[in-house]
Amino acid sequence: MRLLQNKVIKKVxxxxxLLASAVVAPCxxxxxxxxxxxxxxxxxxxxxxxxxxxxxGGTLMGTTAPPLIQMQARFPDKEKLYDQxxxxxxxxxxxxxxxxxxxxxxxxxxxxxxxxxxxxx
Amino acid sequence: MGxxxxxxxxxxxxxxxxxxxxxxxxxxxxESGVDFKAMVQQDIRDFQAYFKKRFSSVEFSEYKNGVxxxxxxxxxxxxxxxxxPPYEFAVDEGEELFTAPFTNGKTYTDCxxxxxxxxxxxxPNFDSKKGEVxxxxxxxxxxxxxxxxxxxxxxxxxxxxxSAYMASTSAGxxxxxxxxxxxxxxxxxxxxxxxxxxxGQLNFSCADCHMRVAGxxxxxxxxSPALGHPTGFPVYRSKWEEMGxxxxxxxxxxxxxxxxxLPAQGRAYRNLEYFQSVMSNGLEINGPSSRK
Amino acid sequence: xxxxxxxKFNMPVMAKVSGEKAMNxxxxxxxxxxxxTLFSSGSxxxxxxxxxxxxxxxxxxxxxxxKGFEWTTTRKLIEGAEIALAAGEKDxxxxxxxxxxxxxxxxxxxxxxxxxxxxxxxxx
Lengths: 121, 292, 124
Fold this sequence. Notes:
The complex is a heterotrimer. Helices cover about 55% and strands about 0% of the residues of chain A. Chain A is an all-alpha fold. In chain A, helix 1 packs across helix 4 (about 110-120). The radius of gyration of chain A is 21 Å and the shape is elongated. The termini of chain A are far apart. In chain A, about 25% of the residues are buried. Chain B has two domains: about 35-85 and about 180-290, Cytochrome Bc1 Complex, Chain D, domain 2 (Orthogonal Bundle); about 90-170, Cytochrome c-like domain (Cytochrome Bc1 Complex, Chain D, domain 2). Chain B is about 50% helix and about 5% strand. In chain B, the strands form three sheets. A three-stranded mixed beta sheet of chain B has the order 6-5-7. Chain C folds into two domains: about 1-40, no CATH class; about 45-115. Chain C has helices spanning about 1-10, 10-15, 20-40, 45-65, 75-85, 90-115. Chain C is elongated, with a radius of gyration of 26 Å. The N and C termini of chain C lie far apart (about 85 Å). Chains in contact: A-B, A-C, B-C. The interface between A and C is small, with 5 and 8 residues.
């Protein structure tokens, strides 16, 4: 009886452990993606998005482009947001927004991270 | 019968095409024969009207003051700075240099109309013999070389001082830069193309920042209107903590957008200055001046 | 040698008939194995691949520069790739060379686009 109990406890613990790691791991990965994206967004030598956009929590922000708010509502399709950052000329050839991906300022992974961060706004 | 009608139809179409192509080529002929003076005048009107529309409360004459024409917040600070002008030393230094004789006994006064007094507004101009735009700074160095002196560096130092002095004697005169002939029009068009073309890793044109988003904040700074850009040069720039010429500013602007600067007083920048000065025709010379 | 060869490939008849042929097969196998190990390791492959990419980047950049459209960032990438290559950091140099080539190509594209479409930038 006791043995059985022990076995059950062990199994439950294992299950909870697995469940926890399954839930926590992607969360953790996502939050580091967001953190990294925020850093890239604010970095003057990388995204330098504050130069033109107002973003919550930023300082010395520009007003040449729309404020970055409600990004999920404005870009329900993540791919479109990615494209806009990678090369905004795809949507408007005469845009003022720099083509961050095409012109080698941000890598694939970096644009992904920025998108993750922008989706939290 | 049907075949004949068809043939007639085709014939008429061909004739129409022929007439049309003649008209088109006649039009192209007019393009190369060009009423370039009218085109330049139209450009000036459109350019100035653009800013009139963007900043309806700003007087045309105010555009000589750069960003301070449209930004009341920084204007106060600037006016205070102008109370004790940081470019005063440069004007004095420039006067000394200007009047000092070359080793051959001649001076700058021998090279310029009216002894070099009050002539800033006539630069840049198009030298039809040389087939190129002559800016004030280039004319100064040409004068030196014609008199056996070494040319001066173009971005700062003695040349900026000389330019400052010559501008100071021209205060209040208005820009009257002409595009006298077709070769001049080519140089003007080259400058215009430079102004509107996107360049650098950031892919910005002059017009992107200084027309489309003029008056907006980039980080903490407000972009200046392109109208009147050349009037106040050379300038004492707080960021430089010294004097600099217009081409020094061009180079800095190009670096900001990660475009490799082109040579100061090279053809590209001279043509750009030419275009910008023509656009600013009618504005007062008020160089030297101070900028942030 | 002939004895060993016969034993190893278990083809005494072939060896007898044509010792040269088997020798060639052996060589072929050896080089195939050698090349697979070398090229699959990546780093040596990178070393071989960097120079042509760099050369392409240089010529393309010079074309863009001649049109007045060089960026401030591209030559630094080329220099970085050269330094890394000289220091034996082949992966790093390949990465930088590729980045330089991308920039050079994009700046040349920009120059050509400007030539054809600069009027589109007139906001009037």
